[in-house]
Amino acid sequence: MLHLRVISPVGSTDQVLAALRADPGVTHVVLLRGAGIDPAGDVLQADVAREAADGVVASLCALGVDRVGGVALEQVDTSVSDAADRAEEAAPGEAADAVVWEELVARTGEESRLNATFLAFLSIACLLAGVAVVTDSTITLVGAMVVGPEFGPLAALAVGLVLRRRDLVRRAAVALAVGFPAAMLVTAGGALLGAATGLFRRDEVLAGDELDFVFQVGPFSLIVALLAGAAGMLSMTSAKSAALVGVFISVTTVPAAGYAAIGAVLGEWGICARSAAQLAVNLVGVVTAAALVLALRNRRAPVRDTGRPLSDG
Fold first, then answer.
1. Which of its termini does the chain have fewer beta carbons within 10 Å around, N or C?
2. What pTM value is reported for the model?
3. Does 63 share its domain with 151?
4. CA contacts within 13 A on the Cβ side of 151
5. Which of 75, 77, 104 is nearest to 4 (CA)?
6. Is-cis flag, bond preceding 39, omega within 30?
């Protein structure tokens, strides 16, 4: 179930209330007249079956509530109610298969911002990948994969392409185009410092072979990226976030970026180029599969597009 909160202008409240009560997937409806302060209006609350949420939000937007009031959704972890059980049974489809498009746009928009936190996580992930390369440690490499935050912008890019949201595509592309080079430069700087202080030697690094798969580009590189992108988008749209950990460990985006930086520092330009190619293949594969999954999902209502860039707030 999802909890819905609506701030409605007084003149539209009866229409909003009628729309909520008419949907069989809506229950626990509460009306607080005059409770809204900013924006002013009436406050309505309800619990909505996930499979009905997309249609409910679309109907509220059709009434203009999103422009002069507000609509908010949040996850209900536990609901002990016969009325809630009846609403979930009456709503068409299955909760796991339902896509709440406004929720997806908001979530991917939030995770696609280029900010200090994103750069810090990506830099740390690439540094971990660099440490994995010089120590020939697969365990450290897995840690780097999990820490990497790159799936957020990749998912946002797929959503933006499918929904033709240029603002979302632009934001995600900037995050990736700036984030990876910056993280690779940080990793290269760390590698130069490590080499200068004797933390590792070039011949020792080149002697390791446990992580050679990172820069070995082949058809399976694309296959894994496609499968991971599909699984990741299914996880995001069905609210099964646990599967995302497997996605992070599957793709070699961060490892390839880290290996490319180490290869450049060691003067192994062939390894550097192949690692960069591996990075590109993984990025393209993940976005392609994620976009395909979204395109195949059934959209019952158009996603609201205000024509304005996504808010930074």
1. C
2. 0.81
3. no
4. 28
5. 75
6. yes
Distance between CA 103 and CA 299 in Å, rounded?
Answer: 13
Structure tokens at 279: 């990075």
Question: What residue numbers bound the domain in which 88 lies?
Answer: 2-97
18 plus 136 within the same structural domain: no
Question: Looking at the domain assignment, is residue 307 inside a domain?
Answer: no
Same domain (yes/no): 90, 115 = no
Q: Which residue has the tokens 């020939």?
A: 136
Residues across the chain = 313
Residue 41 CB coordination number (10 Å): 24
114 and 259 in a single domain? The answer is: yes
Sign of CA dihedral 242, 244, 245, 246: positive
Say which amino acid occupies 216.
Answer: Q
- 93 and 123, same structural domain? no
Residue 203 sits in the same domain as residue 92: no
Per-residue model confidence as pLDDT tens for the chain (313 residues): 899 999 999 999 999 999 999 999 999 999 999 999 999 999 999 999 988 888 899 899 999 998 989 999 998 888 889 998 898 888 887 766 677 888 888 878 888 889 999 999 999 999 999 999 999 999 999 999 989 899 999 999 999 999 888 999 999 999 999 999 999 999 999 999 998 888 888 888 888 888 888 888 889 999 999 999 998 888 888 765 555 666 667 778 999 999 999 999 999 999 999 999 999 999 999 999 999 998 887 554 445 554 444 444 3
